[in-house]
Each structure stands twice: as C-alpha cells, then as structure tokens.
Amino acid sequence: MGHALCVCSRGTVVIDNKRYLFIQKLGEGGFSYVDLVEGLHDGHFYALKRILCHEQQDREEAQREADMHRLFHHPNILHLVAYCMRDRGSKHEAWLLLPFFKRGTLWNEIERLKDRGSFLTEDQILLLLLGICRGLEAIHAKGYAHRDLKPTNILLGDEGQPVLMDLGSMNQARIHVEGSRQALALQDWAAQRCTISYRAPELFSVQSHCVIDEQTDVWSLGCVLYAMMFGEGPYDMVFQKGDSVALAVQNQLSIPQSSRHSSALRQLVASMMTVDPQQRPLIPVLLSQVEALQPLPPGQHTSQI
C-alpha cells in the first residue's frame, strides 16, 4: 500500500512517492469525492477517489474495494493505479487513484444523444453490450458479482469501449440465505448498495431460504441495455414519480416497439429481465448470443460511438 503524505504545496499530494497536482473536482457522493489530478511524473490525468472513513468498518470496506480492483487485469474493468489510507487525527480517508476517462460514463453518452434527439444505433449498442458482458464474465468467473451495474457505473474509453467501475458493492456471487434474519440483513444491504431502479426483483424481498447469485447482474444488465435502446432505464420514471419500483419489477417488462431495434435485440433484453432469476441466461450464454448478433466478426470494429 502507498503512503499519502500531507499536501506538499498548494494543490499537490504525494501517493507512492509520486506527486500529483489537483486540477478540479469531478463529483461527490454521500461519503466520497472524486478529483481530477495530473501526475507530475508523467503528465497523465487521473481520477482520485477519496472515501471518508468514520469507522473501522468504513476502512475495511474501502480496502475491500481496492482489493476488488486488484483482482482483475481486464480491458473492460477499471484498474487501480494506487491505493493509500490518509490519516487526519481521528479521521481517515481512503484514496483510490484511478485512470481518468475524459468521455465520462455511458449515461453521459446517452444524455448527450438525447439532448440531440438521438439514440445509440443497434450496432453501437451491440458493441457496448459485448464489452460489458466480457467484463461481467471476468467478474463472475472469479466467484463475484458486481451488484450495482448501471449506466453511470460504466465508463467509456477513447474508442468507445465500456469499462466497469465502482466495485464497492461487489461481493461473493452466490449467497446462501438461511433464515429470516439473514434475509432481512441482505435486503437492507441491497437497499443501501444496489441502485433501486437497476436492482433485481429477488433483492427487494429476500426469501428466508434461498440462494442469491450472479443473476442479479443479468437483470441489471437488462436495465442497462434497455437504457441504451430507449434513453432511460425501464424503472427510472417509476422511481421519479414516487411509485413502487419493488412492485413494478414483479411484473414481466413490456418492451416498447421501435423500428430502430431488431426483434433479436428485443428478445435479448426480455430474456435478461425475467422475474425468475433461474430463467435468465448466464453471462457466457449472453456473450455468445451477442457475438452472434455482431454485424462483423468479434474483434473487428463497427462504427464507434
């Protein structure tokens, strides 16, 4: 682990014996901030995620997020450049230094197109879906699930390739629930860590004796695919209106008719968003289906976004 020193001069910090210059704030959440910094040793831009840690549990969760990043060396999963814990008296901040993606997230792209009255083409959607599936396949292969897949957690590289980020909600893929207390604890955890409009039905009302598995990610991926097709997630408006998302996800989703999309793509999103998790296709199956729909053989690029 690197050691972050105090601010050395106005707007610079040191991580792993390398100095970084603060450029601007990129965003903030409930207990974290993301800043744009420049490495003075290489001239590259990075995103510095600072997580406020009030308790030991916060520190452990931040360490776990860093560990999740380090598990993977995959082009469709965000890699960790450096990690350190910074102490400020009794307060602590976990610092995750991450690559900076100037194009932002998939949601940024969807919004940009909507502002112009446009949408992603089916070829673009399939290319993005292919990369997301490959990232999820790598996560599932190691026995984990992402648990918070959504368009704002998918970055876009310079050539439009999707990169999965925000691994703070990742946990073991298969969770054996034995008893009502464990079921309620998992349900409460999901309410805090899994975005409501992309959360799988089985996480809203966890059964006392069941297995929650990586198929929660397949549901979320279906919601992401829907958002790429129609410019918003299938339950975004339900949530914004204040209606019950928990109730809405219990009914089979109706996919709007659109001349922009093939019947195969419509069938694909419908299969992912089946209420019964055991009826959803596994990621390797989805991957082969998406590859079969590609206009060019995998590895050759169609038009980028």
UniProtKB/TrEMBL annotation:
One GO cellular component term: Golgi apparatus
Q: Which reaction does it catalyse?
A: L-seryl-[protein] + ATP = O-phospho-L-seryl-[protein] + ADP + H(+); L-threonyl-[protein] + ATP = O-phospho-L-threonyl-[protein] + ADP + H(+)
What are the subcellular locations of this protein?
A: Cytoplasm, Perinuclear region; Membrane
User: What GO molecular function annotations does the UniProt record carry, in alphabetical order?
Assistant: ATP binding; non-membrane spanning protein tyrosine kinase activity; protein serine/threonine kinase activity
Give the Enzyme Commission number: 2.7.10.2, 2.7.11.1
Membrane topology, from the record: Lipid-anchor
Write down a Pfam family by its short name: Pkinase
| Protein kinase domain ranges (all copies) | 20-293
Q: Where's it mainly located?
A: cytoplasm
The cross-references to PANTHER family, in alphabetical order and at most eight, read:
SERINE/THREONINE-PROTEIN KINASE 16, SERINE_THREONINE-PROTEIN KINASE 16
What's its job? Membrane-associated protein kinase that phosphorylates on serine and threonine residues. In vitro substrates include DRG1, ENO1 and EIF4EBP1. Also autophosphorylates. May be involved in secretory vesicle trafficking or intracellular signaling. May have a role in regulating stromal-epithelial interactions that occur during ductal morphogenesis in the mammary gland. May be involved in TGF-beta signaling. Able to autophosphorylate on Tyr residue; it is however unclear whether it has tyrosine-protein kinase toward other proteins.
Protein name (database record): Serine/threonine-protein kinase 16
